[in-house]
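Inverse folding, one chain.
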């Protein structure tokens, strides 16, 4: 019986010990979860397999480090005072994320980019505080407590920091006092376009970055030594190809002194394929259609007139459709030269039609006058004619009977042999009415409408081909002989 109570006693004691042990473990675990240690062993921190920092024994947490650095009461940090009395050096580099649009009408472009700035602030050194990490990634709200170079794009039309879903600002402080900031910005910048060679033009758009508050004596802005500008991905635009991005720097004089300016220059080359298919090729067809009138003959004057006028109207509408989306400039563009030259060719074909129409009318009047002369002399018993020899200049008198008119004259010749009768009388008439300036300046009388049409059908296309050779050779080959990578000023 005694052994039974002894066993029960030991069992009770064991249960109490087990309960006490469990309570102790829970308390220790709770303390480790909610009470972050401020000091640990420096040799016990490291990284897990995912690269995350493991806080263990002996290091100072980031928030404690920051509180000691920027607390004015503890460290005397003043964000309005330059970190170095001799001036600050700020290194800048840019990551181009995307170029979204370029507008000729408003002469600007939109770009998304990252701006990286790095400077050294000795007051922010924390290697003596036994930190857990050699650098700290902090919330951007801390920037309001730190000295910054207050940089901005001075020539931007619009700029804002992305807010998706929070303010896109990255802040990192290194244990040696170096500060790295990164801003993801959307910008609308000016692009003063030169459209003399439109649509085979090359455009240069620039953004100027500088410190707004500090001149060169206080803040010296420089580009990073390696890759000051990087392009993160493909920058595809429907109308332009990004040829190059340049990084330049210069000192600019203001009334308050000299400022460092860092300039990003984007060089774009226009893709003129759309203008070839929508502008040039239809205009080519309109001009070629206007040449069909040369083959319609001199009798189809109404049809030729309608064809030429319609071609001129179509060319005018085509020209207006292309330039409707372009800014109004006072100089001549490349497409203006081509379109105006095309309209000149069409207008010249209308002038040729007017000349042909006039000569055809004169020729018709001559033929009608000759018929009237033949009819009037057929009723006469005697008329003049070149007999049989066309080289003879001496007219011969041929008697004809009024009442015996037939196809045979008394000398046995046929009236068909005197078909040049009208020309004989016409030559006599010209001798009496030739103007004085015709006698002083020889004028050919053998320019007939058919010959002018034949010559125009050859000369117009030939001159047009020569014009296109010079036009395309100059404008397309221009970029090959010009340094398009020279920065714009």
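Residues assigned per position:
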């Amino acid at each position: 019986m005694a052994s039974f109570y002894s066993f029960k006693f030991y069992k009770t004691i064991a249960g109490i010990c087990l309960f006490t042990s469990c309570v102790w473990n829970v308390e220790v675990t709770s303390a480790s979860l909610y009470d972050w240690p401020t000091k640990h062993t420096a040799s016990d921190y490291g990284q897990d397999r995912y690269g995350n920092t493991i806080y263990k024994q002996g290091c100072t947490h980031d928030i404690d480090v920051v509180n000691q650095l920027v607390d004015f009461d503890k460290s005397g940090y003043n964000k309005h005072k330059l970190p170095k009395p001799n001036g600050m050096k700020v290194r800048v580099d840019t990551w181009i994320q995307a170029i979204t649009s370029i507008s000729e009408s408003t002469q600007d472009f939109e770009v998304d980019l990252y701006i990286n700035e790095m400077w050294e602030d000795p007051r922010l050194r924390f290697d003596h505080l036994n930190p857990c990490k050699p650098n700290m990634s902090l919330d951007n709200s801390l920037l309001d407590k730190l000295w910054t170079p207050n940089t901005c794009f001075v020539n931007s039309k619009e700029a804002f920091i992305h807010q998706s879903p929070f303010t896109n600002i990255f802040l990192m402080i290194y244990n040696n006092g170096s500060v790295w900031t990164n801003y993801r910005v959307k910008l609308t910048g000016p692009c003063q376009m030169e459209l003399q060679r439109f649509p085979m033009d090359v455009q240069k758009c620039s953004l100027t970055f500088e410190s707004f508050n500090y001149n060169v004596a206080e803040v010296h802005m420089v580009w990073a030594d390696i890759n000051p500008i990087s392009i993160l991905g493909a920058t595809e635009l429907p109308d332009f190809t990004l040829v190059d991005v340049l990084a330049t720097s210069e000192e600019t004089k203001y009334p308050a002194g000299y400022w460092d300016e860092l300039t990003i220059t984007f060089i774009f080359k226009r893709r003129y394929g759309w203008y070839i298919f929508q502008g040039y090729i239809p205009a080519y067809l309109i001009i070629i259609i206007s040449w069909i009138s040369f083959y319609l003959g001199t009798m189809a004057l109404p049809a030729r007139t309608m064809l030429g006028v319609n071609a001129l109207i179509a060319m005018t509408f085509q020209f207006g459709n292309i330039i409707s989306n372009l800014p109004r400039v006072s100089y001549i563009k490349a497409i203006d030269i081509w379109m105006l030259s095309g309209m000149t060719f069409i207008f010249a074909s209308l002038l040729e039609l007017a000349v042909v129409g006039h000569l055809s009318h004169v020729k018709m009047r001559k033929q009608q006058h000759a018929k009237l002369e033949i009819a009037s002399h057929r009723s006469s018993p005697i008329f003049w004619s070149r007999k049989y020899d066309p080289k003879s200049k001496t007219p011969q008198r041929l008697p004809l009977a009024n009442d015996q008119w037939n196809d045979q004259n008394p000398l046995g010749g046929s009236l068909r042999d005197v078909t040049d009768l009208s020309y004989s009388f016409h030559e006599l008439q010209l001798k009496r009415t030739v103007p004085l300036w015709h006698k002083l300046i020889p004028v050919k009388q053998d320019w007939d409408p058919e010959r002018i049409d034949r010559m125009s059908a050859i000369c117009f296309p030939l001159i047009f081909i020569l014009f296109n050779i010079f036009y395309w050779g100059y404008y397309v080959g221009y970029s090959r002989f010009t340094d398009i990578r020279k920065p714009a000023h």
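The chain has a mean pLDDT of 79. The first helix runs from residue 2 to 34.
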